[in-house]
């Protein structure tokens, strides 16, 4: 707790000092959002002191954490006690506050749900300038329920108390191959449905983590055009060896090449960060001739994010492509949740219509019903008891003749809605207002907005997620 009161006072003082017509934002160096930001002179709220793990209690298995704390720092603090957050989003610089207000997912989400479900309380600086401790059953339960997926439009997380889970030193991975998408989706369904005591089982071995990867085109070998893999992870106290994907080896390539693997717990949690899943290939650093000269400390997602940020701002590559006569490209960076029974249908449509690969899969179900009357989190209303598969795809695609920028994303939004799915809002969105608010809880959001940001100091969710300010 040392330093937290002073940090909160600075935050509140900065907020109070801003002119009423001054847009509000946090003064932080990193962001894992892919929506372009409006350029201009904006004063940021001082978050110094909120990037800290204030306490870890091994007895209650809880941590009290500043909202600006990255998961990298949190994991280092909790692993020292043999513990980890119940869900650790894949990228090191995602913050606790970001995951609570903007969602997150990983291979434990089939059992543990979304990061905000393991939060016992949020300390929130509201749009009204108050510091509120929201809990599921306290006087600010409304804020507790509507804060997830509000993306800082109701307030900012100053701190949170979250639950932790015990770890083992190693994770044993099995990469199970499929050539049929229906079979792959049915296997996810049966694994989760038949799980007992929070553990699934595959061929007699318990399963603690589940995610998947789909490769629509073949490797340089005979066989089916499409390959999909479920990667099943199991806690282990011992390992015959451990692989290292923090240097010259690339993790996602190992999925096709190996039937099983072993990683330390820390390397497992960050297996996707080193190469930003597979997106680092666009920057050339998967080329062995280049990679061997890149220091390990630069092989991480925030390095690549900064490079992409420069391209978004200055358009170096876009101008070079235009000079070569190449078509302009549309950014298609999305994560969507599809009901498990319709996942294969979505994947087939996607492979036929959107030239992006590989594709990431991650099963998800709510850990427990939300603290609301219908058991749904109002701004991201997944069905309690329902199993979804997160489908992640992150790249650019050429804009065809007759199309305009955004058309691929619009088609994806329409398909997701047709299949009763949901789309995360960390990236580009193109919904019309009425359509957006049908999907993202207009009435619940507006009630919370009126209560916690009565003067409209913060953008509303549609303005922030779709209008790209």
How would you portray this structure in words?
The chain has 469 residues and is an alpha+beta fold. Helix content is 29%, strand content 23%. The protein has a domain at 4-167 and 455-465: 2-Layer Sandwich (Uridine Diphospho-n-acetylenolpyruvylglucosamine Reductase, domain 3), CATH 3.30.465.10. The strands form 4 sheets. The protein has an 8-stranded antiparallel beta sheet, with helices on both faces. Strands 3, 4, 5, 6, 7 and 8 form a 6-stranded antiparallel beta sheet that branches. Strand 6 (119-126) and strand 7 (131-134) form a beta hairpin. Helix 6 (181-193) runs antiparallel to helix 12. The model has no long low-confidence stretch (mean pLDDT 92).
N-to-C span? 34 Å
Question: Can you name the CATH architecture of the domain at 4-167 and 455-465?
Answer: 2-Layer Sandwich
Strand content: 15-25%
Helicity range of the residues? 25-40%
Overall strand count: 18
Number of helices: 16
Radius of gyration: 22 Å
Average pLDDT reading: 92
Query: What is the SS-derived class?
Result: alpha+beta
Envelope shape: globular
Report low-confidence residues grouped into runs of 5 or more. none
CATH topology of the domain at 4-167 and 455-465: Uridine Diphospho-n-acetylenolpyruvylglucosamine Reductase, domain 3
Question: What CATH first level of the domain at 4-167 and 455-465 would be assigned?
Answer: Alpha Beta
What strand line-up does the widest sheet have? 14-9-13-12-16-17-15-18
Give a short account of the largest sheet.
Answer: 8 strands, antiparallel
